[in-house]
Amino acid sequence: MTLRNSNPILVNHGMFIPTIVGQGTPDQQAKWLARASNFQIIGTYAQTELGHGTNVRGLETTATYDPSTEEFVLNTPTLSAYKWWPAGLGHTVNHAILVAQLEANGKRYGVHTFVVQLRDEETHMPLPGVTIGEIGPKLGMNGTNQGFLALAKVRIPRANMLMRHSQVLPDGTYVSSPNRALTYNAMLFVRLLIIYQSAWYLKRAVTIVTRYSAVRRQGGAKRGVELQIMDYRTQQQKIFPYIATCFAFQYVGDWLWNVYNEVNAELDTGKLENLPELHSLSCVFKAITSADAAAGIEICRLACGGHGYMQASNLPILYGLATAMVTYEGENTVLLLQTARYLIKVWQSGNLSRIPSVNYLNTALQTKRPFERSVEWIIFALRRAFTSLITRADQGLRDRMASGQTKEDAWNNTSIDLVEAADHYGRSFIVEAFHERVGKLSVSAALKSVLNQLDELYAVSTALKLKGSLLRFADISERHLITLQAWLEDLLAVIRPNAVGIVDSFDIRDEILASALGSYDGNVYERLYTEARKSMLNSEPVNESFHLYLKPFMRSNL
User: Fold this and answer.
1) Residue 329 annotated as catalytic
2) Is 528 part of any domain?
3) Of 71, 329, 420, 432, which one is the catalytic site residue?
């Protein structure tokens, strides 16, 4: 169950270790990394509080420096300051990266990270002053034992503050980071992982529904045999665009991973100017990939009919895992607004040529390109729509402030337009990244043909999803939309013969897929029956509840 419904120790390698790598000094890395890598200690990342999620600056947990002992005193001042949600915190981990408000010499210096031991390494009992537990059942991820944490005058050595970018000296003097954004590098890494995780969950879902659709038959009999439901165009429309989406997310994740490593190398030399763009892209890609993966998995579940509702299909569990991504490591609307804030800043600066992801903004509205059935035209149209949206959002901010609204009120009142602009920015970029990656691949002609079809399908699906914006801003008409729809239907038809082969190429073992509907051998009904027989309610022909409750109820003459 743990493997199917998440794993409580993944956060050790996903967040605990990367934070120490990114924010710890060489001495601190030497102290903790080897032990954490070998699971001699197991850590989590404790940032979110019961009353504070994405608002990291508002966290209430305090770390007050005591120069007389060279220790930090950790406290949870209120119920809303209880750490809430860290994976593995309930029962598994014994250490945590704690995010807390730093106080030294009577001054507060904002949130910083600290390594805190929570449980005894031999007995696993909570240490003095540590209140810890599990938060209870959730929609999904119930194998993670996510927990709560409160600290009462817990003391840790000064050396347990991660001090690569800022530090507290023995006398309490605070030495600040040259750029506070460096302290959020671990969050960038986790958002990058979420992009890959979105692709991974979606690959499992489309594999299940595609294989099932090749086995399940329903209606429309030809020569006395019912059709495979995959032969229905509506079923293809549900499934195939999300098969293409798996490739799009994988490729944009690869692209961002390369940029992440390049920017990290630059940070080591003191070059910081590319960090804001990386942060902006990580925000919007995390928001889009997690939202689309969750929506896609639910569509895959519905496309399996009633059997998709069963946990034996694994689709409800996958949905529970995927929909959690929409919220954790930055709630998606907040992340889109962070991207929008960067875009507005860049737009207002007028210095667009230096920013690779938006250097087309200067010319997008002046350039004309007649409609054509090509991915290149779709990229042009999406760029033009985004440019129009960011222009309108910027003008909305200016108009509202000119009318007397404060900057904060103007931002809030323009936020719907800002979110839409950021979403279009990210989607146009993913379409372009997919198209460029396929164009550069050196593969066989047959494989290249299939990848081109998937590339086109993702682009067309995105264009139709955003057709309202294209009608408003890209100089297209109803007849062009009809052409796009016909192109979509042509692609569905040519992908149909290869659909099972494409999802098989994901090479997901049955043990990992964990689905009675999606196993490689196609024995759907035998596997469903086998899973049904495993129910504890089938362990005896008559459950004792019949004699205790149902039989008396039936004879009560109600």
Assistant:
1) yes
2) no
3) 329
